[in-house]
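agent> Task received from the user: take the single chain below, predict its 3D structure, and emit structure tokens. No templates, no multimer pairing.
agent> Plan: (1) validate residues, (2) run structure prediction, (3) serialize to tokens, (4) report one or two observations.
agent> Step 1 OK, no nonstandard residues flagged.
tool_call: predict_structure(input=
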Amino acid sequence: MTRRPAIVLLSGGLDSTTVLAIAKDMDYAAYALSFRYGQRHSVELEAAKRVAAAQRVERHVVADIDLRVFGASALTADIDVPKHESLDDAGRQAPGSSVPVTYVPARNTIFLSFALAYAETVGASDVFTGVNAVDYSGYPDCRPEYMEAYEHMANLATRAGVEGTQRLKIHSPLIAMSKADIVREGLRLGVDYSQTSSCYDPNEQGLACGHCETCLLRLKGFAEAGVPDPVQYQGA
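)
tool_result: status=success, residues=236
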């Protein structure tokens, strides 16, 4: 029996790598989609390539878009990535009350739009994304209501949807999971997290800073899961 195709948004970080493993475990034929969008932490693309090869995806596409033309984010403009000693020191707010400077305007909407186009071309009715609404940075496009709204819109937006040959489903299996639960699930599925890269401000050698919010969230997840993080950190 032919496996159903699915598009998996793959950044090369902890969450998206876990989602790819989940899609494979569900017996989907995974088509990975990554983006070179002008991000300063482009080392993540090398991680995405490693992960895609290790998990033997059907195809790995890297789409080129330049979000630097808009700026307004520490990931795409000349704005310092905030560093902290701990998540408490970061002064994290409740979801929706404060959007950090690492937010890239409309990034998930842009990425999902590319995924929607890719899905239509390969005949896929399923898109997997690693958005998370528990241990995350408060980005507005990671909320469950956003994902539900996008799925509804997507089914009005394509020829395949209008003609009834595709009913798109956006899978967000991590959305209600803690980082620790995500780590545990990935390890259960045999994910090699040493291949991943989560840091928003790695050095020239690709070593994680250990102090940006995404590093702190990742370290928290591994600590609470009771296993060491296998990636290298600066100064370690």
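agent> Step 4: summary for the user.
The chain has one domain: 4-225.
agent> Done.
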